[in-house]
Design goal:
The structure is a homotetramer of 241-residue chains. With 241 residues, the first copy, chain A, is an alpha+beta fold. The first copy, chain A, is 39% helix and 13% strand. The first copy, chain A, has a seven-stranded antiparallel sheet with strand order 4-3-2-1-5-7-6, with helices on both faces. Chain A starts with 6 loop residues before the first helix and ends in a 14-residue tail after the last helix. The model of chain A has no long low-confidence stretch (mean pLDDT 94). Chains in contact: A-B, A-D, B-C, C-D. At the A-B interface, α7 and α8 of A face α3, α5 and α7 of B.
Chain lengths: 241, 241, 241, 241
């Protein structure tokens, strides 16, 4: 921790992370104290995260815990989320992400419990996630009994090895639940909400047609590239505003 | 574009289309910026449509983009919905419609992803849609890589060729989601809400009885004609009001 | 119509029926103008029913239409619900009922579309409905093309012939949806809400265990009689209040 | 009843139990008068419970009925819940519990009707319930026709015999619905809400993968012990607050 620590920037991040946590509750992705959102200040290598076990309705910005990338508490009167080491692993390995979310949202968790990745069945999916949303393999007994939360992060990174984490901003951890990430905390929550809806649509899709195969690759590419990359033409980028 | 352009009429249509878009959000058929509603002023061949990628809570009537039937922006500071060419194709081919809606509503999208039309299983369905709500075939790679959004409109029109678009005011685009239409923007939204409920009922119906076949034709006719056509006797038409 | 017509009583019934219709909307059993509730003034043989095709948010007590048991409008500026003849048939045949409800509620309609009665799978069911909630056979083409709505009532009565309509206060009409009844309009709505929840639980039950058979008869009897009949001991009847 | 009766303590418990009952309604686990919550004052062997058949919106603290462990009414103008003898049996046998809840919540009841325990499919489950949430065997005809509600409590206790009731704070009664318990009334409601969500996730899990087997034992242990027991490290226990 030799970097300079900008108090104003950290306060702004605490507000942003607090609001993102509240948005998780507003979108009904969490019950009680379940789930957590974090954000990172890359220039200072500081991560701001929800305190462990505190109900959403009691969260205030100053309760958000500030930790460094090794998990040491830099400031805060609360224990950080017990899932903090998973978040930190993702920040260390996914260089351009600014926010991480973990939930036990109902449909995404059901796919994680079924130990199945979510196939890309339509354009709603490929508007946000390029191809399958993978499911990690199970952790080994050694990984579980060792540094469990960090190993959860490691198995995520390992599973993403051959994928572009910008194009697949989320994953299912087997028998556990979803993690998503994004350019900031708010965007990571957005991806969590979308992932939950995709999980719901996919569960319904296979209930209607058990023999369904995924979307054509050419349509998947079309929709993904309509919203992402240099030739994107969705939205108001570069418009007359 | 030699037709006269009546500003008052266009403003009224912008208000109507804005309100119809908000109704889509109120009925929970859309998440974030998903979905779009348009309306047409037939006497001027002007279409009013939601701007692309703007969240529903920020929409105001003056943000609704005005385009001609070729898709040229006539007035507006925003890009129109990226799905505009699909809407325009429907207005060109379905001469009497006044509004078009596209959503990714959960159950209708699941049927579209399952690549199955929704069979007519009951009178709730035949009160609004005469017979099956069809699902288009997949677009070809050439159609996808070409003028994609316009080709989406073309495959809808092609699939509807042997059907009466007034009696079947909606369709599923394979791997994508539903489009509906109606006599105006509000009516098209109404049909979207009904289609989503029919998709939900149908998914449940086949989960309860996998061998179910559709409704008797005579009952389908009875309910459709009870509400539509010159012998309709549902509602308050011609009553003492 | 030789009976005396008590204006105060009829007004009170219009208020009760209006409120019961609004309760149907509040409990989310209906979309738009779907569904209808009626009540009867037995001493005058007058039935009060929702006007046809009017949205719930616009209903007021004075809009409730007053008809006699033959369906003649006694008072009212609106057409009565197109399902009025079905209601009247039930009032004529089920001597002690005071209210009737028809909806297209999602889960009950799915069972009706699947053409299956809802088996009694648990005590929630037998607290309200003794044994299966039956599904009618399909109407014949002659019944459909004839006096359709009255014939719907007739097939309900025929299906209930060997059952006690007080112990089974509701039914599914094949390919259509549920009808319920009760001692008054409010109670009939209560039974509609319960029927919908039973339909939902039953759909889930068979999805969890496809080989499930119903509840033991002795347990069904126990729960039904715990709440109904002269030895009932549920609730506050005869307590110290 | 030779124990001293502390009026202030009983009043406080009536308030707590009333609030816990209202929370059950707020969390949408109950319809109309269904379900009930109780709490116990161990030092006086007094149980406070919801009155039978009273709608939630009318409940006030002073309506909560006070009974002794034999079910005699000590104070109150209402009949206690008809399920009171089931609650009392649990208080007598599970020495450290302070609250009991019974509901007919949709998904948990569906599993009870399917006569299946809920397998532990993931960490959401093992965060709260160690291993399967069991389903009781059916009661015998003698048990049903005898002291039915007490026998319901007895079959719960019998089914829990080889389990730790602190580690499995809830159960499904076959063909009936869930019972949960906890250190107080509020905690028992919390466990009811969680059980319902676990039942929903499990129903979805088996619909996605019918061949799924449960979670690894080592992961189940890890999550359970992360939140429970002397080495727990979830939450704010022992933190700097």
């Amino acid at each position: 921790m030799t970097k300079v620590f900008d108090e104003t920037e950290v306060k702004r991040l605490q507000e942003e992370v607090c609001e993102a946590n509240l948005e998780l509750a507003a979108k009904k992705l969490v019950l009680y104290t379940w789930g957590n959102v974090s954000g990172i200040l890359r220039e200072a290598n500081l991560v701001v995260i929800k305190p462990s076990g505190v109900p959403y309705e009691k969260l205030t910005p100053s309760m958000m815990v500030i930790v460094d990338l090794e998990g040491n508490i830099v400031e805060g009167n609360y224990n950080p989320s017990s899932d903090t080491p998973s978040h930190l692993e993702l920040y260390r390995e996914f260089a351009t992400i600014g926010g991480v979310v973990h939930t036990h949202s109902t449909y995404a968790t059901a796919w994680a419990q079924a130990k199945r990745g979510i196939p890309c069945y339509g354009t709603t999916h490929s508007d946000y996630f390029y191809n399958e949303i993978p499911c990690t393999p199970e952790l080994t007994p050694e990984e579980i009994n060792g540094d469990y939360e960090r190993n959860t992060g490691i198995v995520i990174v390992r599973t993403m090895r051959d994928r572009d984490y910008n194009a697949v901003p989320g994953i299912l951890v087997a028998n556990h639940g979803p993690f998503t990430w994004g350019k900031d905390a708010d965007n990571a929550v957005h991806n969590s909400v979308v992932l939950e809806e995709l999980a719901r649509m996919a569960q319904l899709t296979i209930s209607i047609n058990q023999d369904i195969t995924g979307i054509q690759k050419v349509l998947m590419d079309k929709h993904y590239l309509r919203k992402h990359g240099k030739n994107a033409y969705y939205g108001q980028n570069g418009n007359k505003e």
